[in-house]
Structure formats: C-alpha cells, structure tokens
Design goal:
Layout (H helix, E strand, L loop, with lengths): L1 H8 L4 H10 L32 H26 L4 E11 H6 L6 E7 L6 E5 L1 H11 L15 H20 L9 E7 L13 E11 L2 E10 H16 L24 E4 L7 H5 L17 E5 L2 E11 L2 E9 L1 H10 L2
Antiparallel strand pairs: 1-5, 2-3, 2-4, 3-6, 5-6, 7-8, 8-9, 9-10
C-alpha cells in the first residue's frame, strides 16, 4: 500500500508537457541540467547526418578562390581545344561521399586522381556527352556529336585524359601559394555505383561547374575528401584570419655632419632672350649681344639642375657675389632636409 501511495503521489501535467515541447522550452546542458531560461541562449540546429566542417565565411572565401580557378581554366581549355570554351561556377558546397557518388549519372566520365603530396583519392565527374564532344574536337571535328549519352571507349578515354589532366593541374595550381600539389590520374569509371575511394560518411568538398562550347553543354564536378585537403585549407584559412599588418612609420631623413663635405654643382643663369636659328648661326667672335639690365636682379641659382633660389648678382670687393632674395619650393625642400 505504501508503494501504491507513493506512486499516486507522483503527478504529471500532460498538457503542460505538451505545451512546453511545442514552445521548445526544454533545453538541457551537456551534464543534464535543465536551463530555466532558454531565451538567453543562442541555439543553432545541427544535423549530425551531414556535419558542416566549414563556416559560411570559409565557404565564401573558397568560392572567391574558385571563381578565379574557373576563369583561368576556361582560358586554358580554350587554347587546348582551339575554340571558345565557357565555364561558369555553379556551386561550392560540402557533401557526404555517399551523397556525392549517388548523384553521378550513368554513364558518365569519372576520373580518379590523387595528389602526390596528400592522402586520399579525389573524383572528377564530367558529363559523358561533353567528354565525347571533346574527343571529337581533339580528332579535328567541329565539336558536335550525337546528343545521346554513352560511355567512352578505351581509345576515347585515352584521348580525353589530357583534357581531364588540364582540369586537375589547373585546380592544383590555385593552392600554389600554400603548397605545391601535383595531380596523378589513377583510374577511370563510367558510374558511381561501385566507387569506394572514401568512407560513405566522409565529407567531400564539391565544386560544381557548367561547361559549354559549340552547341554542347554539360556539368563538370570536382570532388575531394575534406581530410585530404584539410592541411591546405587550414593554412589558407589561418592566413585569411590574421589581422592585416600595421603599416610601419616611415622615418624622416636626418642630416649627418659627414654630408657637409660633399661637393655640389651650383650654377647661376638668366632667361635672357631668344634667337632665331639664322642669328645663332651668324654669331662670331667679338660680337656684342645687348642684354636687359634688369636680368641682373632676376638671377637664378640652380643646384643639380633644379632652380632653388632667386636673387641678384653683383660685385663684393673683387669677388662676384649673389644675393638671395627668394627661395623656391625646391630650395625649401633642400633647406628642410639639411636641418631635419
């Protein structure tokens, strides 16, 4: 009876629990303690089946870098195919390996590759119709094929390998400032059903592009495991998070006593008059040229081909002297440096 009484004493308000669950007011800490006031917390939903290893800011930075990669790749492939090859960046996101391979069309042209300096195997997925058109262009065609999608023959796979290698090589070049990467093609597949290059729950960084040339267009995707690219991404993101270096203050030049003994070329000149070429050629020894007396009061002192002072020239005893009446901007700059 005692147990029965204790059980009856336990009362639960079902309506209160339902209302609390709808309002989402049940919040517990990692140690099991219930939070009395959840409104003071910032709660973010997290999907454990698709963990996000990169923040929105990190993905934005990588998208900017990927746009540059797509631009340079488009030019490189245009030169290789000798025709205009257009590329547009569709998306850059993180996805599970199982989700990525399940979206590979069949048939498709899938290239398995790895970087010699990193661990793991990446995937390059190119639309089969696009690959067949590339083969036609390499063989001298106009770059148009039967619109039906089909798998490539062994000979066609060998021909399109150079095209795929250019894509991978250009993709590796974008990381040269962080680490030099060298891609190696290790195999090809026509479907993603049997691929097991990474664990199903491994995170993949997937770059999606839309390619078009001639009358053909199709998707291209580059997928690389996050654990493969993590050393490079960590270095890149750490560099971007560093605050910009503060500009160093430039030191003003100082005058030293040793400069006092340096000889400097000084000249005095006038803007006297102008002559025609005929008069200049007719000048002879003992010719007299009349000059305006006011020129003496408008003499210019030039130092290292720069007019520094204006004044009047005259005699001081048995010496020719110059009286400084005005200082130009060049002269002021010279004086400020010597007294700095």
């Amino acid at each position: 009876m005692a147990d029965q009484e204790n059980f009856e004493d336990e009362s639960f308000d079902i309506d209160e629990l339902k209302a609390a669950s709808v309002e989402g007011s049940f919040v517990f800490l990692h140690d099991g303690d219930k939070v009395s006031d959840p409104s003071s917390l910032s709660i973010k939903k997290y999907d454990f089946t698709n963990p996000i290893v990169l923040s929105d800011a990190d993905l934005s930075l990588l998208k900017t870098k990927s746009e540059q990669f797509v631009y340079y790749l488009s030019g490189h492939l245009s030169m290789f195919l000798r025709t205009e090859f257009n590329l547009e960046l569709e998306d850059l996101n993180a996805s599970l390996y199982s989700s990525f391979v399940s979206t590979i069309n069949s048939p498709s042209c899938v290239t398995l590759y790895k970087m010699q300096e990193l661990n793991g195997v990446g995937l390059l997925d190119v639309n089969s119709h696009l690959s067949a058109t590339v083969v036609d262009r390499i063989l001298g065609g106009r770059g148009s094929t039967n619109p039906e999608e089909r798998g490539l023959t062994d000979i066609e796979k060998a021909l399109v390998e150079d095209f795929n290698f250019i894509i991978l090589e250009e993709w590796c070049k974008q990381w040269n400032t962080i680490k030099t990467l060298n891609p190696v093609i290790i195999g090809t597949e026509t479907t993603g059903k049997f691929l097991q290059t990474s664990p199903p729950d491994a995170m993949m960084l997937v770059l999606s592009m839309e390619a078009s040339f001639g009358d053909v267009s199709g998707p291209m995707r580059i997928g690389v495991p996050y654990y493969t690219l993590e050393p490079v991404l960590t270095s890149l993101l750490s560099q971007s998070s560093k605050p910009p270096a503060k500009p160093t203050k430039s030191l003003s030049p100082k005058w030293h006593e040793i400069y006092d003994q340096i000889p400097v070329r000084v000249s005095v000149e006038w803007d006297a008059f102008s002559l025609t070429v005929r008069d200049l050629l007719n000048l002879e020894v003992n010719d007299v040229i009349e000059m305006n007396p006011e020129l003496i009061a408008n003499s210019k002192v030039r130092i290292e081909d720069r007019t520094c002072f204006l004044g009047e020239i005259g005699l001081e005893g048995d010496q020719v002297a110059f009286q400084v009446n005005e200082c130009t901007s060049a002269g002021l700059n010279l004086i400020s440096k010597s007294h700095g």
